[in-house]
Amino acid sequence: MKLAVLKRRVERGEQLVEGRLQQTRDEYGALRSQWREAWTPTRILVAGVVSGFVAGSSQPKQALRRLGKLGKVVGDPRWLRLISSVAGLLGSIQAMVATATARKAAETADTAAEEAAETAEDAGAGGTAPPPGGSGSGGAPAGADAPAASAEPEAVPPSDRRKPDQRWDTQPSPAEAATEMSER
Questions:
Q1: How far is CA 42 from the centre of its chain?
Q2: Largest CA distance in the chain
Q3: Which intervals carry biased composition (Basic and acidic residues) (predicted)?
Q4: 154 near 146, Cβ under 8 Å?
Q5: Where does residue 166 rank: exposed (0-12), middle (13-18), buried (19+ CB within 10 A)?
Q6: 70-106 burial string, b = 16+ CB within 10 Å, else e?
Q7: N or C: which end of the chain has fewer CB within 10 A?
Q8: How far is it, in rounded angstroms, from Cα 125 to Cα 131?
Q9: pLDDT tens for each residue of 130-153
Q10: Angle between helices 77-126 and 174-183 (to 10 degrees)
């Protein structure tokens, strides 16, 4: 055979391999998305109940002895310690993920509060001038007043309805932000 013919065969083989790799990636992506869509909350609960029933109805002592026989030690308590430490590790990982989620929700709430404050300031600046004498804080600008001594927000007089409600000027606590994010 000539070198040109062999070279074309090699190039065609490389193209075939690249095509198969792309097909495999596409099929894997489709399988992965279908797998995730198939696990609905109801199916997860049913699978958990069934596996719990199977684990509870099987004879746990015999199962632990079988595990012990795998390690050439019958009934070794090290297996129980290993299982309990893995369970603790999984619990701490779940707590870490929950903390990260709450932190992200708090940051999102902070960003939303800042945007709301900017929008309120823009709405207040684009409207009419504030009433003479300021907004009750001795001539300070409209957005600078804050409840100083009282925790109770002041009632907004009917003439000043464009002013944002003071109870919305502060950012929500992280727990409130996380609850709000989880309800969406």
A1: 21
A2: 99
A3: 159-168
A4: no
A5: middle
A6: eeeeeebeebeeeeeeeeeeeeeeeeeeeeeebeebb
A7: C
A8: 13
A9: 444 444 444 444 444 444 444 455
A10: 90
